[in-house]
Specification:
The protein is α+β, with helices and mostly antiparallel strands and 383 residues long. 16% of the residues lie in helices and 17% in strands. The relative contact order is 0.11.
Amino acid sequence: MPVNIFGPADVLGIDPRQVVRTEPRHLTANFEPNYLTALDFAEPDLPWLMTPAAPNGDRLRPWISLIALKPSEFQFSAEAPHPLPKISVTALQALPDLSASWAWAHVQVAGDLPANGLAGVLATAPQNVISRLLCPRQLDPDEHYFSFLVPAFEAGRRSGLGLDSTSVTTDVAAWPPAQGTASLDLPYYYSFEFHTSDRGDFESMVRQTAPRVLPPEVGIRPMDVNQPAPPPFPGAGPPLGLGGALRSAQTTDTDWQDPGKAAFQASLQDLINLTTPPNDDPDHPKPKDPPVVPPIYGCWAAAARSADRAGSRWIDTLNLDPRQPDGSGVRYPGRRPGTKCPAGIGLGTGRRGRTRQPAAAAGAALQAERPHRLWQALHTGHR
């Protein structure tokens, strides 16, 4: 037997409490233009509750639509709401395609579904289920917009304007209007406004970056190692390139040749290995204080107490090759070729039982290109 059901023509308003969130928030001044505007509803079936059209497979058009318009694309009506407030859209091309409106509405469930599925969530925690309506319009940067929740079917549009809708076919869309119509009156159930920022979010800016091949000089800096310490400590040979953390794919390490390499590494190995053992034997204390020497970086992570220039461990390369910076700062604060400033081999606290280098002090020593007070302690014996 025939059954009469409610449709969009029977709706004369939506309780504002049904809208639990707007995206963006009302009067937002810097909304990312690469995002979409949206409305979240407390009732999970609200977008389809009054739909008069039959589904097409698993696609069901919602009975409401969210639109976003610039101030130049519409006009507010000066008439009192009858029964709903209305706008007159003058830029019809700004309205979304209602034939694809099924794609812009969905349900969201917060958390995992229980064994009895969606029905179980609705029975025990209905607040975890919401529905969402999106506006598919791509926004322009630095532009003001008004968003309106409007009827998506002609019956709902005419009813919201106070017009007779009994002769309207139930599944006719609210737009596009008849051929030759320059504007369209639309009632609305809810509205908010916002302004977009001049740029999008971080991801959108990253996607605009273009690859650039950097020259091989990027990521490496000439370092004078001819006189790293006063005699009799030997020099390491011609200037070497101090590598950085960020470097070009074409950057290559400086070729370090003997005899400068062998002499420097042998002397440096003997010097930094003086940190072993880390403590004196209480039963047989040494008559003299231990020398103040550079630390062995990474000794705790590598479980090593010495560096070996003939070894293949990463700790050997880290401590005996001045071309490689370590993770705590500049390992070997050298000097630029042509400057008169002496260079230190490394920095240490000189305290008995522990060795470390303040990264900030090492960086400052390199930037100021002057010896650090700990470097002076290294060669004068002061602690």
